[in-house]
Amino acid sequence: DVKVTQSSRYLVKRTGEKVFLECVQDMDHENMFWYRQDPGLGLRLIYFSYDVKMKEKGDIPEGYSVSREKKERFSLILESASTNQTSMYLCASSLPPGTGELFFGEGSRLTVL
Amino acid sequence: QKEVEQDPGPLSVPEGAIVSLNCTYSNSAFQYFMWYRQYSRKGPELLMYTYSSGNKEDGRFTAQVDKSSKYISLFIRDSQPSDSATYLCAIMNTGFQKLVFGTGTRLLVSP
Predict the structure, then answer these.
(1) Which residues of chain B lie closer than 8 angstroms to A4, CB-CB?
(2) How confident is the model at residue B102, as a pLDDT?
(3) DSSP B90-106
(4) From the DSSP assignment, how many helices (H) and strands (E) are in chain B?
(5) Cα distance from A26 to chain B (closest Cα, Å)?
(6) Which residue, among B87, B81, B102, has the nearest Cα to B37 in the 3D structure?
(7) Does the distance separating the beta carbons of B32 and A100 come in below 8 Å?
(8) Cβ of A1 under 8 Å from any chain B Cβ?
(9) I want to staple B37 with a disulfide (CB 3.0 to 4.6 A). Which of A11, A98, A106, B47 is the partner?
(10) Radius of gyration of chain A (CA)
(11) Whole-angstrom Cα distance, residue B8 to residue B12?
(12) Contacts of A23 in chain B (CB under 8 A)
């Protein structure tokens, strides 16, 4: 069965802390994505990656960075967390060239105090 | 103007009702149209996928695309309480993997 696993379901961090959100997929997918989901704004793409060590900015990359050292793992990094980064973060993966089918993890709810 | 517009709801219906969920989009270049379903505290999962205009049926679900009006719809027949979820439309350019999502419509089906 297809599986995208996000390491933490709930996190509470303080302003200025460095935050790591980890995502692992077991489907050998080339493409991986990080979205954030906010009420009234829907899903917004932060970063995506088509291959190992490759990354592309999405629509809202400011304040975030990513790392993809291995095909199965895609990490989202908040260098200095701020309160406006309180959100639900969703990781997803897919095969190229793309049918639009993304496989999502269950999400990581981050609260920045 | 947002690329995809979707009424956030909530939409409340009694069990057995026919449900209509809709999205409009602005860019005529989009060719692929999807509906995702998201249960509370879960990630979205693909429900229906269509390419270009027309209808696609899968059990109680029908996805409809009208490219001339830039309008996509999801119909649910004989709705069940288990259909209570948020439904997100998504669209994609040809050959490009990036999806654009609507904000989602929350559906509540009461027994």
Answers:
(1) 43
(2) 93
(3) EEEETT---EEE---EE
(4) 0, 11
(5) 16
(6) B87
(7) yes
(8) no
(9) B47
(10) 13
(11) 12
(12) none
Q: In chain A, which residues have their Cβ closer than 8 Å to the Cβ of B45?
A: 103-104
Residue B32 neighbours by CB under 8 Å, 6+ apart: A99, A100, B49, B50, B51, B91, B92, B93, B94
**Local confidence pLDDT in tens for the 113 residues of chain A:** 669 999 889 999 999 999 999 999 999 999 999 999 998 888 999 999 988 988 999 999 999 999 999 999 999 999 999 999 999 999 999 887 666 789 999 999 999 99
Q: How far is A93 from chain B (nearest CA, A)?
A: 11
**CA-based Rg of chain B, rounded to a whole angstrom?**
13
Which residue in this structure is represented by tokens 């304040």?
A63
- With contact defined as beta carbons under 8 Å apart, do B9 and B101 qualify? no
